[in-house]
TrEMBL record:
<dbReference type="InterPro" id="IPR002577">
    <property type="entry name" value="HTH_HxlR"/>
</dbReference>
<keyword id="KW-0238">DNA-binding</keyword>
<protein>
    <recommendedName>
        <fullName>HTH hxlR-type domain-containing protein</fullName>
    </recommendedName>
</protein>
<keyword id="KW-0805">Transcription regulation</keyword>
<feature type="domain" description="HTH hxlR-type">
    <location>
        <begin position="17"/>
        <end position="115"/>
    </location>
</feature>
<keyword id="KW-0804">Transcription</keyword>
<dbReference type="Pfam" id="PF01638">
    <property type="entry name" value="HxlR"/>
</dbReference>
Length: 132
């Protein structure tokens, strides 16, 4: 119970919250798609770009660099003319596959409920604003 007039100390902080730190890693819309593209093993840059619908070369490069920086992806360079570049998940990156699959499973089961709730909300509040 909170005492009236006393300010409660925050117990949730962006700086220390594990959820916030996780979202910092995976919240880019391309990150999860790149991880899924790598889930079956090493893949060349060009093939990955063809597999991920709508991703530009710039975004693919930026996403791969960030994932490499985070220790989730490793870049493999095979000397050739032209050089062959492929990417794969690191052991740390592979640990993300299970929770991402669980989120995907949740989405398959529950996303229609989210869409329904959004429609109901929008109908309720658009009617409410029309009456004002």
């Amino acid at each position: 119970m909170t005492t009236p007039g006393l300010k409660k100390t925050p117990d949730i902080s962006i700086a220390v919250c594990g959820y916030s730190k996780t979202l910092e890693i995976i919240s880019n819309k391309w990150t999860v798609l790149v991880i899924y593209a790598l889930e079956d093993g090493a893949i060349r840059y060009g093939e990955m770009g063809r597999r991920i619908d709508g991703i530009s070369k710039k975004m693919l490069t930026q996403t791969l660099r960030q994932l490499e920086r985070d220790g989730l992806v490793q870049r493999h360079l095979t000397p050739a003319i032209p050089p062959i570049v492929s990417y794969s998940l690191t052991p740390l990156g592979e640990t993300l596959l299970k929770p991402l699959r669980e989120l995907n499973d949740w989405t398959k089961v529950h996303y229609t409920q989210v869409e329904t709730a959004r429609q109901e909300y929008d109908q309720t509040y658009s009617a409410s604003t029309e009456n004002h």
